[in-house]
Fold this protein.
Amino acid sequence: MGNNCTICGGTVSFLLKKEEFDLYKCSSCALVFVDPQPTDDFLKEKVYSPEVGYQRYERKNFATIQADAKTIKVLSYLEKQHPAGKTILDVGCSSGEFLYHAQKIGLKTKGVEVNPWTVEIGRSNGLDIFNGFLAEAKFNDASFDVIFLGDIIEHVTSPRDFVTECDRILKPGGLLIISTPNMDCFWSRSTFVLYRLFKIPWSSVTPPHHLFQFSYDNLVLLMKQFQYKPAHQFYMRPPGLVYELSGLHLLKRFKKQKTIRNAFSLAFSFALYIPFYFVDYLITPFKKKDFSMVVVFEKYA
Protein backbone atom coordinates (compact mmCIF):
# COMPACT_ATOMS: atom_id res chain seq x y z
CA MET A 1 0.00 0.00 0.00
CA GLY A 2 2.88 2.37 0.73
CA ASN A 3 2.86 5.50 2.85
CA ASN A 4 0.23 7.45 0.93
CA CYS A 5 -3.54 7.31 0.69
CA THR A 6 -4.93 5.66 -2.44
CA ILE A 7 -7.61 8.36 -2.74
CA CYS A 8 -5.95 11.68 -1.95
CA GLY A 9 -2.26 10.85 -1.68
CA GLY A 10 -2.18 12.03 1.93
CA THR A 11 0.00 10.57 4.67
CA VAL A 12 -1.40 7.52 6.44
CA SER A 13 -0.70 6.28 9.95
CA PHE A 14 -1.48 3.16 11.96
CA LEU A 15 -4.92 3.29 13.58
CA LEU A 16 -5.57 -0.04 15.28
CA LYS A 17 -5.35 -3.80 15.00
CA LYS A 18 -8.45 -6.00 14.86
CA GLU A 19 -8.04 -9.74 14.90
CA GLU A 20 -4.84 -10.24 12.85
CA PHE A 21 -5.41 -7.24 10.55
CA ASP A 22 -3.72 -3.83 10.77
CA LEU A 23 -5.84 -0.79 9.91
CA TYR A 24 -4.53 2.62 8.85
CA LYS A 25 -6.12 6.04 8.47
CA CYS A 26 -5.38 8.90 6.11
CA SER A 27 -4.61 12.14 7.94
CA SER A 28 -6.11 14.18 5.08
CA CYS A 29 -9.30 12.50 3.87
CA ALA A 30 -9.89 10.08 6.79
CA LEU A 31 -10.05 6.92 4.66
CA VAL A 32 -9.64 3.82 6.87
CA PHE A 33 -8.21 0.67 5.30
CA VAL A 34 -6.54 -2.69 5.89
CA ASP A 35 -2.83 -2.98 5.08
CA PRO A 36 -1.51 -5.32 3.80
CA GLN A 37 -4.50 -6.29 1.70
CA PRO A 38 -5.52 -9.96 1.44
CA THR A 39 -5.31 -11.66 -1.95
CA ASP A 40 -8.34 -12.31 -4.15
CA ASP A 41 -7.78 -16.06 -3.73
CA PHE A 42 -7.88 -15.67 0.07
CA LEU A 43 -11.15 -13.73 -0.14
CA LYS A 44 -12.75 -16.21 -2.54
CA GLU A 45 -11.74 -19.31 -0.57
CA LYS A 46 -11.62 -18.17 3.06
CA VAL A 47 -14.14 -15.32 3.29
CA TYR A 48 -16.81 -15.54 0.56
CA SER A 49 -17.16 -19.27 -0.01
CA PRO A 50 -19.94 -21.72 0.89
CA GLU A 51 -17.38 -23.76 2.85
CA VAL A 52 -17.07 -21.01 5.49
CA GLY A 53 -20.85 -20.50 5.58
CA TYR A 54 -20.90 -17.09 3.88
CA GLN A 55 -24.50 -15.96 3.24
CA ARG A 56 -25.79 -19.35 4.38
CA TYR A 57 -29.16 -17.85 5.30
CA GLU A 58 -30.08 -16.48 1.87
CA ARG A 59 -33.69 -17.26 1.01
CA LYS A 60 -34.46 -19.31 -2.07
CA ASN A 61 -37.99 -18.36 -3.15
CA PHE A 62 -38.05 -14.68 -4.12
CA ALA A 63 -41.80 -14.65 -4.73
CA THR A 64 -42.38 -14.44 -0.97
CA ILE A 65 -39.73 -11.76 -0.27
CA GLN A 66 -40.58 -8.12 0.32
CA ALA A 67 -38.03 -5.48 -0.65
CA ASP A 68 -36.07 -4.03 2.27
CA ALA A 69 -36.02 -0.30 3.08
CA LYS A 70 -32.79 0.43 1.20
CA THR A 71 -33.96 -1.38 -1.94
CA ILE A 72 -37.25 0.52 -1.85
CA LYS A 73 -35.44 3.88 -1.61
CA VAL A 74 -33.00 3.10 -4.41
CA LEU A 75 -35.68 1.78 -6.77
CA SER A 76 -38.01 4.68 -5.94
CA TYR A 77 -35.26 7.02 -7.07
CA LEU A 78 -34.65 5.02 -10.24
CA GLU A 79 -38.37 4.94 -11.06
CA LYS A 80 -38.24 8.72 -11.38
CA GLN A 81 -35.51 8.34 -14.02
CA HIS A 82 -37.85 6.49 -16.44
CA PRO A 83 -36.13 3.09 -16.15
CA ALA A 84 -38.16 1.07 -18.67
CA GLY A 85 -35.78 -0.79 -20.97
CA LYS A 86 -32.62 0.50 -19.27
CA THR A 87 -29.93 -1.92 -18.17
CA ILE A 88 -28.67 -2.26 -14.60
CA LEU A 89 -25.75 -4.27 -13.23
CA ASP A 90 -25.61 -5.24 -9.55
CA VAL A 91 -22.02 -6.02 -8.52
CA GLY A 92 -21.79 -8.26 -5.48
CA CYS A 93 -25.44 -9.11 -5.91
CA SER A 94 -25.48 -12.17 -3.62
CA SER A 95 -28.56 -14.18 -4.61
CA GLY A 96 -30.00 -11.27 -6.58
CA GLU A 97 -32.92 -10.06 -4.46
CA PHE A 98 -32.28 -6.45 -5.48
CA LEU A 99 -32.29 -7.44 -9.16
CA TYR A 100 -35.53 -9.38 -8.68
CA HIS A 101 -37.26 -6.21 -7.46
CA ALA A 102 -35.50 -4.04 -10.07
CA GLN A 103 -37.13 -6.07 -12.82
CA LYS A 104 -40.51 -5.04 -11.47
CA ILE A 105 -39.91 -1.39 -12.41
CA GLY A 106 -38.84 -2.26 -15.96
CA LEU A 107 -35.07 -2.53 -15.66
CA LYS A 108 -33.11 -5.14 -17.62
CA THR A 109 -30.87 -6.80 -15.07
CA LYS A 110 -27.51 -8.54 -14.77
CA GLY A 111 -25.50 -9.43 -11.68
CA VAL A 112 -21.99 -10.36 -10.61
CA GLU A 113 -21.31 -12.47 -7.52
CA VAL A 114 -18.29 -14.43 -6.30
CA ASN A 115 -20.21 -16.92 -4.12
CA PRO A 116 -21.32 -19.87 -6.33
CA TRP A 117 -24.00 -21.00 -3.88
CA THR A 118 -25.91 -17.71 -3.93
CA VAL A 119 -25.41 -17.42 -7.69
CA GLU A 120 -27.33 -20.66 -8.12
CA ILE A 121 -30.17 -19.30 -5.97
CA GLY A 122 -30.42 -16.25 -8.20
CA ARG A 123 -30.29 -18.28 -11.38
CA SER A 124 -33.02 -20.57 -10.07
CA ASN A 125 -35.17 -17.44 -9.79
CA GLY A 126 -34.54 -16.57 -13.44
CA LEU A 127 -31.75 -14.03 -12.95
CA ASP A 128 -28.68 -13.56 -15.17
CA ILE A 129 -25.71 -13.62 -12.74
CA PHE A 130 -22.03 -14.05 -13.54
CA ASN A 131 -20.07 -16.09 -10.98
CA GLY A 132 -16.72 -14.44 -10.28
CA PHE A 133 -15.13 -11.02 -9.83
CA LEU A 134 -16.24 -8.05 -11.94
CA ALA A 135 -13.06 -7.89 -14.03
CA GLU A 136 -13.48 -11.57 -14.92
CA ALA A 137 -16.92 -10.93 -16.45
CA LYS A 138 -15.33 -8.93 -19.30
CA PHE A 139 -18.43 -6.91 -20.16
CA ASN A 140 -18.27 -4.71 -23.25
CA ASP A 141 -17.52 -1.01 -22.95
CA ALA A 142 -20.55 1.17 -22.12
CA SER A 143 -22.82 -1.82 -21.50
CA PHE A 144 -25.00 -0.44 -18.70
CA ASP A 145 -27.18 2.57 -17.91
CA VAL A 146 -26.95 1.97 -14.14
CA ILE A 147 -24.47 0.12 -11.93
CA PHE A 148 -25.44 -0.62 -8.35
CA LEU A 149 -22.65 -1.25 -5.84
CA GLY A 150 -24.70 -2.40 -2.86
CA ASP A 151 -22.30 -2.64 0.08
CA ILE A 152 -19.48 -3.98 -2.08
CA ILE A 153 -16.90 -1.19 -2.56
CA GLU A 154 -15.72 -1.65 1.03
CA HIS A 155 -14.98 -5.32 0.26
CA VAL A 156 -12.63 -4.92 -2.71
CA THR A 157 -8.83 -4.85 -2.48
CA SER A 158 -8.49 -1.79 -4.75
CA PRO A 159 -11.41 0.65 -4.90
CA ARG A 160 -9.62 2.66 -7.58
CA ASP A 161 -9.21 -0.35 -9.90
CA PHE A 162 -12.78 -1.39 -9.12
CA VAL A 163 -14.22 2.01 -10.05
CA THR A 164 -12.04 2.07 -13.18
CA GLU A 165 -13.73 -1.13 -14.38
CA CYS A 166 -17.19 0.18 -13.46
CA ASP A 167 -16.47 3.39 -15.37
CA ARG A 168 -15.43 1.40 -18.47
CA ILE A 169 -18.69 -0.52 -18.67
CA LEU A 170 -21.04 2.35 -17.70
CA LYS A 171 -22.55 4.47 -20.45
CA PRO A 172 -21.85 8.23 -20.60
CA GLY A 173 -24.52 9.95 -18.53
CA GLY A 174 -25.13 6.73 -16.59
CA LEU A 175 -25.63 6.35 -12.86
CA LEU A 176 -23.26 4.65 -10.43
CA ILE A 177 -25.03 4.02 -7.12
CA ILE A 178 -22.79 3.25 -4.15
CA SER A 179 -24.03 1.97 -0.81
CA THR A 180 -21.39 1.66 1.91
CA PRO A 181 -20.86 2.30 5.64
CA ASN A 182 -20.11 5.91 6.59
CA MET A 183 -17.34 6.44 9.14
CA ASP A 184 -18.33 10.09 9.55
CA CYS A 185 -21.38 9.49 11.71
CA PHE A 186 -22.25 9.59 15.40
CA TRP A 187 -22.28 5.82 15.83
CA SER A 188 -18.82 5.24 14.39
CA ARG A 189 -17.29 8.27 16.09
CA SER A 190 -18.76 7.50 19.51
CA THR A 191 -17.82 3.82 19.49
CA PHE A 192 -14.30 4.73 18.40
CA VAL A 193 -14.10 6.77 21.62
CA LEU A 194 -14.94 3.58 23.51
CA TYR A 195 -12.03 1.91 21.76
CA ARG A 196 -9.65 4.75 22.62
CA LEU A 197 -10.71 4.95 26.27
CA PHE A 198 -11.29 1.29 27.13
CA LYS A 199 -9.80 -0.69 24.21
CA ILE A 200 -13.21 -2.14 23.38
CA PRO A 201 -12.90 -3.51 19.80
CA TRP A 202 -14.36 -1.05 17.29
CA SER A 203 -17.42 -2.66 15.71
CA SER A 204 -17.44 -0.30 12.72
CA VAL A 205 -14.39 -2.00 11.21
CA THR A 206 -14.82 -5.63 10.23
CA PRO A 207 -11.77 -7.06 8.46
CA PRO A 208 -11.31 -9.13 6.36
CA HIS A 209 -14.83 -8.45 5.07
CA HIS A 210 -14.51 -4.66 5.00
CA LEU A 211 -11.13 -3.60 3.63
CA PHE A 212 -11.79 0.10 2.97
CA GLN A 213 -14.05 2.29 5.11
CA PHE A 214 -15.31 5.53 3.61
CA SER A 215 -17.02 8.75 4.53
CA TYR A 216 -19.19 10.83 2.20
CA ASP A 217 -16.40 13.34 1.58
CA ASN A 218 -13.66 10.90 0.61
CA LEU A 219 -16.06 8.85 -1.50
CA VAL A 220 -17.04 11.97 -3.44
CA LEU A 221 -13.35 12.88 -3.74
CA LEU A 222 -12.63 9.48 -5.29
CA MET A 223 -15.51 9.69 -7.75
CA LYS A 224 -14.69 13.24 -8.86
CA GLN A 225 -11.33 11.92 -10.04
CA PHE A 226 -13.30 9.75 -12.49
CA GLN A 227 -15.48 12.68 -13.64
CA TYR A 228 -18.58 11.78 -11.64
CA LYS A 229 -20.78 14.20 -9.74
CA PRO A 230 -23.02 13.35 -6.76
CA ALA A 231 -26.67 13.60 -7.80
CA HIS A 232 -28.48 12.31 -4.72
CA GLN A 233 -27.77 10.72 -1.34
CA PHE A 234 -29.60 9.33 1.66
CA TYR A 235 -28.63 7.69 4.94
CA MET A 236 -29.89 4.81 7.05
CA ARG A 237 -29.23 3.60 10.58
CA PRO A 238 -26.51 1.13 11.64
CA PRO A 239 -27.30 -2.59 11.54
CA GLY A 240 -29.17 -4.10 14.50
CA LEU A 241 -27.75 -4.11 17.99
CA VAL A 242 -27.05 -7.87 17.91
CA TYR A 243 -25.02 -7.40 14.72
CA GLU A 244 -22.98 -4.60 16.26
CA LEU A 245 -22.34 -6.57 19.44
CA SER A 246 -21.23 -9.57 17.41
CA GLY A 247 -18.88 -7.23 15.52
CA LEU A 248 -16.89 -6.79 18.72
CA HIS A 249 -15.85 -10.48 18.41
CA LEU A 250 -15.80 -10.70 22.21
CA LEU A 251 -18.44 -13.40 22.47
CA LYS A 252 -16.49 -15.51 19.99
CA ARG A 253 -13.36 -14.98 22.07
CA PHE A 254 -15.17 -15.99 25.26
CA LYS A 255 -16.51 -19.17 23.68
CA LYS A 256 -12.98 -20.16 22.72
CA GLN A 257 -11.46 -19.24 26.09
CA LYS A 258 -13.91 -19.12 28.98
CA THR A 259 -11.73 -17.14 31.35
CA ILE A 260 -12.73 -14.59 34.00
CA ARG A 261 -10.89 -11.90 32.08
CA ASN A 262 -12.77 -12.61 28.85
CA ALA A 263 -16.08 -12.79 30.72
CA PHE A 264 -15.45 -9.40 32.34
CA SER A 265 -14.38 -7.86 29.03
CA LEU A 266 -17.55 -9.17 27.37
CA ALA A 267 -19.88 -7.90 30.11
CA PHE A 268 -18.16 -4.51 30.41
CA SER A 269 -18.15 -3.89 26.66
CA PHE A 270 -21.78 -4.88 26.20
CA ALA A 271 -22.77 -2.68 29.16
CA LEU A 272 -21.27 0.34 27.38
CA TYR A 273 -22.25 -0.49 23.81
CA ILE A 274 -25.94 -1.09 24.50
CA PRO A 275 -26.74 2.39 25.94
CA PHE A 276 -24.65 4.03 23.20
CA TYR A 277 -26.73 2.21 20.60
CA PHE A 278 -30.00 3.47 22.09
CA VAL A 279 -28.66 7.02 22.34
CA ASP A 280 -27.77 6.78 18.66
CA TYR A 281 -31.31 5.58 17.93
CA LEU A 282 -32.93 8.42 19.89
CA ILE A 283 -30.99 11.16 18.09
CA THR A 284 -31.66 9.70 14.62
CA PRO A 285 -34.18 12.44 13.65
CA PHE A 286 -31.54 15.10 14.31
CA LYS A 287 -28.71 13.61 12.28
CA LYS A 288 -27.62 14.96 8.91
CA LYS A 289 -25.61 11.79 8.25
CA ASP A 290 -25.92 8.24 9.51
CA PHE A 291 -24.00 4.97 9.37
CA SER A 292 -25.26 3.55 6.09
CA MET A 293 -25.01 5.92 3.12
CA VAL A 294 -26.25 5.57 -0.43
CA VAL A 295 -24.80 8.03 -2.93
CA VAL A 296 -25.94 8.30 -6.54
CA PHE A 297 -23.16 9.48 -8.87
CA GLU A 298 -23.80 10.67 -12.41
CA LYS A 299 -21.16 10.08 -15.06
CA TYR A 300 -20.44 13.10 -17.22
CA ALA A 301 -21.72 12.54 -20.75
The chain has a mean pLDDT of 94. The chain has one domain: 39-238+288-299.
